[in-house]
Amino acid sequence: MKKFQCGAVLIMALLMAACTTNISPDTYSVDSVGSVTRSVPGVIVSARPVNVEGTNKVGGLTGAVAGGVAGSAIGGNDRMHALGAIGGAVIGALAGSAIEKGVTNQTGIEYVVKTDSGETLTLVQGPSPAYAVGQKVMILYGKRARIVAQ
């Protein structure tokens, strides 16, 4: 039983890690290929690290299923199996949600950019590549805006 629980937790962690959103400005979706986007030149005014909160999509469901299966093995009669499954599902859902959120948390950089037209814009993206205050950049608009070196 302990092997099953450890295996279930490992599988949950791997599934949730696969759900981590890529926040790098260097990654494009296949839908972006061939699309035209507007680009605006500007200068980095400030940059600071920020926490990008993780997702909570499949962790609760995965945890509930794993916890329900594991909990159903508790007890010697049908009623105890059912109670164990319900309790396991609730505990598994809570644990799965917490694990997913922890696994999918990321560090990002919040950039404030002053465009050449005088507009001030703020954008959060992944920490690599990093841009320095005073560096000339291009803001690329589209489905997912991003900052790239000029």
From TrEMBL:
<dbReference type="GO" id="GO:0019867">
    <property type="term" value="C:outer membrane"/>
</dbReference>
<dbReference type="Pfam" id="PF05433">
    <property type="entry name" value="Rick_17kDa_Anti"/>
</dbReference>
<protein>
    <recommendedName>
        <fullName>Glycine zipper 2TM domain-containing protein</fullName>
    </recommendedName>
</protein>
<feature type="domain" description="Glycine zipper 2TM">
    <location>
        <begin position="59"/>
        <end position="100"/>
    </location>
</feature>
<dbReference type="InterPro" id="IPR008816">
    <property type="entry name" value="Gly_zipper_2TM_dom"/>
</dbReference>
<keyword id="KW-0732">Signal</keyword>
<feature type="signal peptide">
    <location>
        <begin position="1"/>
        <end position="23"/>
    </location>
</feature>
